[in-house]
Amino acid sequence: MRIPCWTMREKSRIAVLASGRGSNFEALARACLDCDYPAAVVVLITDNPEAGAVSIADSFNIEHVAVDCGPKKGSMSPESSEKITAVCAAHKIDVVCLAGFMRIVKGALMAAYRGRMLNIHPALLPSFRGLDAQRQALEFGVRWSGCTVHFVDEGVDSGAIILQRIVPVRSDDTVESLSERILREEHVAYPEAVRFYATGRLRVEGRRVIIREGV
Ligand code: GRF
Description:
- This protein is an alpha/beta fold and 215 residues long.
- The chain has two domains: 1-113, Rossmann fold (3-Layer(aba) Sandwich); 119-215, 3-Layer(aba) Sandwich (Rossmann fold), CATH 3.40.50.170.
- It is built from six helices and nine strands.
- It has helices at 23-32, 52-59, 78-90, 107-113, 133-140, 175-198, and strands at 12-18, 39-46, 63-66, 95-98, 117-121, 144-151, 161-168, 202-205, 208-211.
- A seven-stranded mixed beta sheet has the order 3-2-1-4-5-6-7, sandwiched between helices.
- Helix 2 links the parallel strand 2 and strand 3 (63-66).
- Helix 1 (23-32) packs parallel to helix 6 and helix 3 packs parallel to helix 4.
- The longest helix has 24 residues, at 175-198.
- The mean pLDDT is 96.
- It binds 5-O-phosphono-beta-D-ribofuranosylamine (GRF).
- The site of 5-O-phosphono-beta-D-ribofuranosylamine has 14 residues, from helix 1, strand 5 and helix 6.
């Protein structure tokens, strides 16, 4: 049976927040080109106008907005949190996807999108939270690593886990080779997790995210 195409009106509206290269943003934008995909990237919001993600947005014809999040590295000023929330409200955003956004979300944005905000992390959480996750995994000596898509809460990479994909760690791996292998899985995991979310298949029970069977 053919699944009917989603009309724009029915698609979940995504805002992607990114600070850098933007390959996960691109993976989401690409998935959204498929009319059977239940979501659409409506706006890219960045704290870095020089981000590679900005030129990717241009190539996909996606609107982008730069918001100065303040001088404190890794943190966002209350004003910037309000500004981002206002941009999301103006674009009628249903779900916020963090994709290499180098700030801890707090304030108005957290309050407005709790339970509706996702992040991708390049390690198998709860191991190796925070920066340089691939280096942490390599130096710790794990045999397997991977990526995790999770809901965002107030902590650092601490929200309920939606899905994970694994990769082997090889004895000759460098941070670069391991990161590359993980990144390929990130580009599969994030669109898949957003699909689950947008089709209403996720239910959170405490720390556990139950994924209902479905199309
Ligand atoms: C990815 O490894 C993602 O897991 C992490 O930051 C990196 C962003 O890469 N949160 P990109 O900008 O999506 O290429």
